[in-house]
Amino acid sequence: MKHYQVAIIGTGPAGLTAAIYASRALLTTVIFEGMQPGGQLTITTEVENYPGFPNGIKGPELMELFRQQAQKFGTVTLFETVKAVDFSQHPFKLVTDANEEYSADAVIIATGASARRLHAKGEDIYWGFGISACATCDGFFYKNQKVYVIGGGDSAMEEALYLTHFASTVTIIHRRDEFRASKIMVQRAKENPKIDFLLNTVVEEFLGEEKRGIKKLTHIRVRNLITNEEGILPADGVFYAIGHTPNTEIFKPFIETDANGYILTKGKSSYTNIPGVFACGDCQDPTYRQAITAAGSGCIAAIDAERWLSEHYSKLK
Ligand code: NAP
Predict the structure, then answer these.
(1) Which of 122, 154, 217, 232 would give a disulfide with 208, using CB separation of 3.0 to 4.6 Å?
(2) Of 179, 210, 240, which residue sits at a domain end?
(3) Quick check: is 285 catalytic?
(4) What are the pLDDT digits (tens) for 148-180?
């Protein structure tokens, strides 16, 4: 069984930043790419708010730069997905989808979260080309355009309010006529003249066009759940705010999470309930969910792991 001092699970900004710091601290470091190498940024188009890139950078290109930087310091990158862990023994054990087993003195969980999808017709075609799950990331591209937000929770209200800074109109589409969002957030949205509501309604299909190889969302097909009436509406952008699911299922037998599955970390640190296992990025952050905050927490996790290893490793051997 191959052994590393640090095993990092997940290759978004959090995991790869942890890899840069851990390998630069001269710890033998392996990183498992996982199901979506590069993480959620690889399904966005332009990233304009990552510091250091005044002209913006494509999400996949940014993650490739992260990866190269980690590899430069010796991180071993494996195109495998960790499918099971055993944190009840030390060194910790990890098993991948290639049925390979690895052991590690410290583990950094950076498995991220996945935006919930509707799985409506056309969604896969226009994801990243008119459909997004992050207004902070992509709202800027919809100046004076007609956008929709799907959902009735606090995220939907917050995203809609944020989008009014750019869009000409923002329509919140919600499947019920009652909101899960807090009253104050709903009130703020209702009071904003740019926001209107389409209630008891679901999006059934995304429609668009392709010009010179570039796909673009142009319309959505919606259905009223009370009357069953359908309609096709012009749409430049649609933002999903139907929640995120942290990718933490395989850790649950060992690692404490909140009711929504987000890993609980101690204070400002990346410490989990298991000494030697650290968590960073969106799998433990339901609030900020930005590439830069994930990268920052990846740095924290690597520093925590390095300090923990130097303090405790000799005792555990
Ligand atoms: P959420 O509260 O779980 O709300 C998800 C919304 O999406 C619900 O309205 C739900 O409808 C809808 N939805 C889920 N699946 C759907 C589907 N398949 N089709 C159509 N609609 C669907 O998620 P969230 O808004 O992301 O919030 C997550 C947590 O973060 C909450 O605790 C929230 O309070 C918190 N948060 C707080 C703030 C703030 O305080 N500023 C901002 C953002 C988030 P139903 O209501 O019908 O189930």
Answers:
(1) 217
(2) 240
(3) no
(4) 999 999 889 999 999 999 999 999 999 999 999
Active site residue 299: no
DSSP string covering 141-163:
GGTT-EEEEE-SSHHHHHHHHHH
Active site annotation includes 137: yes
CATH code for position 154: 3.50.50.60
Euclidean distance between CA atoms 263 and 269, whole angstroms: 12
Residue keyed to tokens 């001092």: 5
For residue 293, what is the enclosing H or E element?
helix 291-316
Q: Contact at 8 Å (CB) between 200 and 228?
A: no
- With a threshold of 0.70, does the pTM exceed it? yes
Whole-angstrom distance, CA of residue 303 vs CA of residue 21: 7
On whether both 147 and 218 belong to a single domain, the answer is: yes
DSSP 303: H
Question: In angstroms, what CA-CA distances link 20 with 29, 33, 66, 78, 229?
Answer: 9, 14, 8, 15, 54
Residue from 157, 175, 288 to probe ligand 1 pocket by mutation (most atoms less than 8 Å from CB): 175
Cα separation, 44 vs 37, in Å, equals: 13
106 and 72, same structural domain? yes
Range of the domain at 80: 2-114+244-316
Which of 155, 185, 197, 204 to mutate to test ligand 1, by most ligand atoms within 8 A of the CB atom? 155
* Tally of structural domains, the chain: 2
H or E stretch at 315: helix 291-316
Structure tokens at 148: 């929709």
232 and 261 housed in the same domain:
no
Question: pLDDT by residue (tens digit) across 245-282?
Answer: 999 999 999 999 999 999 999 999 999 999 999 999 99
